[in-house]
């Protein structure tokens, strides 16, 4: 797998399930967030960004539910950076069931940078852009 893709796994537990015995749709948001944290840990120093007074803030999340995940399924969350714009960036994520590779869900997460001192969003400046641009991977790269 491409080094620009972060992988994390989660085993479906009883507390993830709803009354229909499959993963509650809201739980996928947590699975995806776990994938994003894994991505940031792997690709760049998020703590250094925070120390500079910047925070990554969510501005949009679009999720497609493809099929149900059930108790004891092991899920793999793949996360990559798929686009960088002037003021925002997009991460593409895919959740697959490990045993058969079936896609369970996929999502696009748009974020901006927030200046924590002023409380205002800001452009992605050149220094950070130079770090992020080489990490961009086409959306369809998360097929595996």
From TrEMBL:
It holds the Pfam family 4HBT_2. GO terms for molecular function: fatty acyl-CoA hydrolase activity. Gene3D superfamilies: Hotdog Thioesterase (3.10.129.10). Keywords: Hydrolase. SUPFAM superfamilies: Thioesterase/thiol ester dehydrase-isomerase. It comes from the Bacteria. Belongs to the 4-hydroxybenzoyl-CoA thioesterase family. This is Thioesterase-3.
